[in-house]
Amino acid sequence: MADERHEDHSLSSKEFKFVCEYVHTKTGILLNESKREMVYRRFSRIIRERKLNSFSDYCHLLQTKPDEEENYFINAITTNLTSFFREKHHFDYLQAHEIPKILSQQKKSREQKKSIRIWSSACSTGEEPYSIAVTLLESMEAQLQEWDVKILATDIDSNVLAKAAEGIYDQSRIDDLPKEIQQRYFIKGTGSNSKNIKVSKKLRDLITFKQLNLLHDWPMTGLFDVIFCRNVIIYFDKPTQQELFARYYEYIKPGGLLILGHSENLGAYQKYFSNGGRTIFRKPEVCDQVAAG
Ligand SMILES: C[S@@+](CC[C@H](N)C(=O)[O-])C[C@H]1O[C@@H](n2cnc3c(N)ncnc32)[C@H](O)[C@@H]1O
Questions:
Q1: Is 28 in the pocket of ligand 1 (CB under 6 A)?
Q2: CATH 3.40.50.150 domain locations along the chain
Q3: What's the fold here for domain 2-77?
Q4: Tens digits of residue pLDDT in 179-197
Q5: Which residues does the annotation say bind S-adenosyl-L-methionine (predicted)?
Q6: 136-171 pLDDT per residue, tens
Q7: Quick check: CB of 6 below 6 Å from ligand 1?
Q8: CA–CA separation, 281 vs 267, rounded Å?
């Protein structure tokens, strides 16, 4: 009964405006009229889950109990669509060009510690970092012991991170992967889990999952060979995108890569990178100072 009552409620312009501003300030995600229906649906679910009577009650709760509600609200509002080997050409490029390049360059310099660092900076439910891990193992498993290989996987949404760290998915999520990849890296569930698969320990061991809002400070100290920033900046406004590109640039090793999603581009920051392929951008070996923002 209560649910039906909420469905009848309309989201007032004032409440919609409040939500848009709140989400933008907290996450960088830009919501506009075209997202009204989506906001309404997700907001309605929150109202039901929180057993409230109106959208304005929830706006009030967000303002009065921000510590309790912020994380919950952000988790509800993010869009987490992803898949294993999404935009496969990025992983093909890593395997064919980037990993061999890293392996050969570091071999030459004996003093340097042999390490590979990759950051999946909006990892959602984990399919992206696990695809990176498969690609690394397929490219260099025999040499793995000589290397310190680490993938950092971060997202603002604590629910998707928990799912990612668990590493359990519906079997259908990997149906399109080659059979040998399925067998090498995923364990089939049994009994009541027979429709599920679990990622193997050797993939899991390469990845550290952490909650990180890209708008906040980044606590990492080292630089990355490759940063994946795919299908996240599309949700941000231009100034936020440009600020982030300046920060990503600083976190990439000279000669390293920044990889964006299919409908994303660097805008004015294109001039600081060279083109490595479809939405693959290379920081020069000798780097310019980048003007922030
Ligand atoms: C559409 S998914 C992209 C997942 C993956 N990178 C891919 O391309 O398949 C976008 C992710 O960005 C995350 N996100 C949105 N705003 C963020 C922010 N300010 N900081 C970190 N992650 C954010 C969302 O939680 C969501 O999981």
A1: yes
A2: 88-166+200-282
A3: Chemotaxis Receptor Methyltransferase Cher; domain 1 (1.10.155)
A4: 999 999 999 999 999 999 9
A5: 80, 82, 86, 128, 155, 213-214, 230-231
A6: 999 999 999 899 999 999 999 999 999 999 999 999
A7: no
A8: 12
